[in-house]
Amino acid sequence: MENYYFYGNLCSWFYDIDKPFPNKKDLDFYLSFVDKGMNILEPMCGSGRFLVSFIEKGFDIDGFDLSKDMIERCKNKIEELDIKYKNLLQCCDFNKFTSSKNYDFIFIPSCSFSLIIKKIDIINKLKILEKLNKQNGKLLIELLINEDIGKSGISDVYYRDRVVKQDNFEIVLSCKTIGINEEENVKYSIFKYELYEDGIYIRAEEEKFNVKYYIPIEFENYLEKTSYKIVNKYINNEKEKYTDQKIEKIIYELIKE
User: Fold this and answer.
1) How many domains does the chain have?
2) Domain check: are 19 and 81 in the same one?
3) Which CATH number goes with the domain that contains 223?
4) pLDDT (tens digit, 9 = 90+) per residue, 184-218?
């Protein structure tokens, strides 16, 4: 069984409505690292908001994700572009992704890598990415940062988080925190998605949502197990460098030596 979260049907639908396209500044940030002709890979690509945007701009990009529902949504978006997409798009985990390519550029945006919570799995997946990268190829990974998640506390009840609407459908997201591992800086939650049509309840779906928060400099310890070296650490899509600020995320720019 996979050790990190994968999206079900209602969850995939919710996020496809809530975040159908990347923020322009976020997209421009990642596009600034690539050129036409590069082999590009997006692991954990979800429903393809970044991947499809790269395709629209004429880039050669592959992707994979553990969620069947997310991959189906990604395929549908690509079909709507009315182009011949000959690249790889696989429903799988890191260790089952198969490609004959070595990639110039690999990126995991939106803090998706923080869904991998066990140290051994973090290292193993970094080593898989290392094998997929070309020599001197780049890897960009965005990570959640929080030095003390214990302050967030545990809730015995769901709290309503967000509501999205599409046509006559409404999906309500509710969340509750069921545990916190302060030693590993991991928060365990359950997300509940409730579907309504014209205000009438249809069905619900619950998903485990476990997230790893990094302590600054912690990720460097994992990188020591690989040949990756840090080029830059950014705190936003404007390429502001990390210099010990109090922040919620870091984007690591790495190079395979």
Assistant:
1) 2
2) yes
3) 3.40.50.150
4) 999 999 999 999 999 999 999 999 889 999 998 89
Strands (E) across 69-168 are located at: 89-91, 103-108, 133-144, 159-166
Distance (Å, rounded) from C-alpha 126 to C-alpha 215?
Answer: 18
Within 8 A by CB and 6+ apart from 80, the residues are none
Query: Is residue 201 in a domain?
Result: yes
**Is residue 4 in some structural domain?**
no
The tokens for 71 are 């991959």
Question: What average pLDDT does this structure show over 9-37?
Answer: 93
pLDDT in tens, 146-187: 877 767 667 667 877 899 999 999 999 999 989 999 889 999
pLDDT at 33: 98
Q: Tell me, yes or no, whether 117 lies in a domain.
A: yes
Residues 41, 105: Cα–Cα separation, whole Å? 6
pLDDT in tens, 63-103: 999 999 999 999 999 988 877 777 889 999 999 999 999 99
- Helical segments of 19-169, H only: 24-31, 49-56, 68-80, 119-132
- Count CB-CB contacts under 10 A for residue 242: 17
Both 25 and 119 in one domain: the answer is yes
Q: What are phi and psi of 215, to 5 degrees?
A: -90, 135
* One domain for residues 17 and 132: yes
Cα 10 to chain centroid distance, Å, stands at: 18
What is the domain range of residue 171? 149-212
